[in-house]
Amino acid sequence: MNPAIISALISTSSGDLRRAITYLQSAARLSGATNPPTPINAGDIQEIAGVVPDAVVQKFAQTLGVEVSLNGSGDEDVEMADAASSTTTTTLRGFDLIRETVRSLIREGYSASQILTQVRSFVFHTPS
User: What percentage of residues in the chain have a pLDDT greater than 90?
Assistant: First the structure.
C-alpha cells in the first residue's frame, strides 16, 4: 500500500483504527465498483472521510501567504479551480486573489469550518 494512503488513513481517522478500517473498506468498495478497478489513493480516503484534500488546503494556505512546499506525493491534482492560474485572474494579488480562491472553494462545496480547521493544523505543523 502506498505510504500516502496510510498517512491519509492515520490523519483522517485521528488514530482510530476502527474508523481507518471503515474508510479503507469504503474506498476498496468504491474502487472495485469500476471496471477495471481503479487504485485507491489518498484523495479517495480524504473524500470518504469528508475532509478537504491536502493539496487544496496547501493551495489555499499558499494563497494566504503561508510558505508551502508541495511534497510530491503524487496526489497534487487539485480539484479546486485554481484562481491563481486562470487566464483572467493572473493579475490578481492580495485580497482579490484570496477572494477569488474562496469563491472557488465555495463553488467546489468545501466546508468553510473544515478548511479553516485544516489550514490551522497545516500552519502549526509546518516546519518554519
Answer: 32
Q: Is residue 128 predicted with pLDDT exceeding 50?
A: no
Q: pLDDT tens across 20-30, in order?
A: 999 999 999 99
* Separation between Cα atoms, residue 125 and residue 128, nearest integer Å: 9
CB 68 within 8 A of CB 58: yes
Grid coordinates in use for 43? Answer: 484523495
How many Å from the N-terminal Cα to the C-terminal Cα in the chain?
A: 30
Instruction: List the grid coordinates of 44.
Output: 479517495
Q: What is the pLDDT of residue 111?
A: 87
The beta-carbon contacts of 65-71 under 8 Å, at least 24 apart in sequence, are 66/119, 66/122, 66/123, 66/126, 67/126, 68/126
pTM above 0.70, yes or no: no
Residue 64 is given by DSSP the state T
